[in-house]
Amino acid sequence: MICAFCGHEFDEHDGKKGCGGCAGGCHSVHCPRCNYKNPLEPDVIKSIRNLFSKKDGHKGDTQ
Ligand SMILES: [Zn+2]
Ligand SMILES: [Zn+2]
Predict the structure, then answer these.
(1) Phi, psi at residue 51, to the nearest 5°?
(2) What pLDDT score does 61 carry?
(3) How far away, in angstroms, is 61 Cα from ligand 2 center?
(4) In the structure, what pLDDT confidence band is assigned to residue 60 with cuts at 50, 70 and 90?
(5) Among 8, 5, 33, 45, which Cα is nearest to 16's?
(6) Which listed residue, 8, 9, 53, 61, has the most CB atoms within 10 A of its CB?
């Protein structure tokens, strides 16, 4: 996933879950770089994103 705050790309499992510092319990993934609280992506959104990324097999083809 990509941090919505600083743009740092990290694995969801590398982020800090259940930090214990969030009010009402932590249901987010904290960015390992800036500690921003990124909301967890539902699996539905992940699969939709995979559908799109499969179309474009090339990586780093930015103009
Ligand atoms: Zn938290
Ligand atoms: Zn971040």
Answers:
(1) -60, -45
(2) 65
(3) 24
(4) low
(5) 33
(6) 8
